[in-house]
């Protein structure tokens, strides 16, 4: 046995841990002191955040057919989404929707890393909003550090008070809008400001306002690094061709300051790379990591360090891209593969799941029928010698429009139907009424006959539902 098993060193790479005594990262009472940054990625994130906030704030106010367009009424067990009404019987549609969203997230993460966290996650959006308020009232990063270090005075008191008041107002508005998706939002605003809201509505607003204020104002990066499970399992979806925010060590090392007048070639002759070790990439990071230590689970792929580094490269006269969106394979000098088995697999599954969701929506019948036999008596004989069974018929109009339905019985010859042959049911309502079916016993060949109660929309034969039941004699 001369062959040796090859051993691979898998010792963990030393990851940068922010030191509160250095100029790179300092911890404040609300989290990390994040430095303001400007650049194309930051501009894109802000515009995208405005769109996201506008949708979040505007959707619950939209009206459709005279009622709130999106209302997820848990108490009534009814979800109205524009012209679509979902009931507990339609939970499969919600399951399909969650599956599609999950695979879409997997697909995007495999291709471009944690861009959801950096550009679309509500935690990130609200955190940047709170930081923006902080910057406007307390100043730049260095000013905020000095403000927190000095003792309380009148200037510090009014700035801190104004900041937290604005944070609370934002949190309350956020909670009101969020709860407005689950209860009529117009009545919610009126009831809350007139102190007539119910217990659960008021409790929900206070609870979600507290969560918003705590998460975006105080916890911030703790949500991303310690609480959110997505940061933990993201590595399962990464591969060597995933685009992530990456520092190029071949170009940047060795780090170190240098005169601005020195050329790039002169610095290279001294063994210096393009990284001037300014720590701006760390100061602008919302989670406080040093991207130069390689890929870390705390990185949310927001690209703030990319904008900061590119700004420094411009000032130094160096090419941009020392920190950039790239893949591990490309960084090693290999060819990047956009279409690869994992990505194609996620895309195929996503398309299949989306197709199934669309098929479920298109084939959904906005009508549900349920028939319950009378349990007190199996059957009874009428005065004219007929055998009669009694049922309770329930018709659920799952649409938002008032509909007329025609009722009939199938599977029983020469029967007599006792009840309304045509009923009118309002949108989202349940029609309940006892009905009877009678037949001459000479027309029955078995003691138990399988029958169906058929309900069909008047004027629309595509809307039809059947409920199986049994006709019993002896």
TrEMBL record:
Domain 4Fe-4S ferredoxin-type: 266-294
UniProt keyword Transit peptide present: no
Keyword flag Transcription regulation: no
UniProtKB keywords: 4Fe-4S, Electron transport, Iron, Iron-sulfur, Membrane, Metal-binding, Transmembrane, Transmembrane helix, Transport
Gene Ontology MF terms: 4 iron, 4 sulfur cluster binding; metal ion binding
Pfam family, one: FixG_C
Chain ranges passing through the membrane: 47-64, 93-113, 165-185, 197-216, 343-362
GO CC annotation: plasma membrane
UniProt xrefs under SUPFAM superfamilies: 4Fe-4S ferredoxins (SSF54862)
InterPro entries, per database record: 4Fe4S_Fe-S-bd (IPR017896), 4Fe4S_Fe_S_CS (IPR017900), Cyt_c_oxidase_cbb3_FixG (IPR014116), Electron_Trans/Redox (IPR051684), FixG_C (IPR032879), Helical_ferredxn (IPR009051), Ig-like_fold (IPR013783)
Region Disordered, annotated ranges: 1-24
Protein name in the entry: Nitrogen fixation protein FixG
Organism: Saliniradius amylolyticus
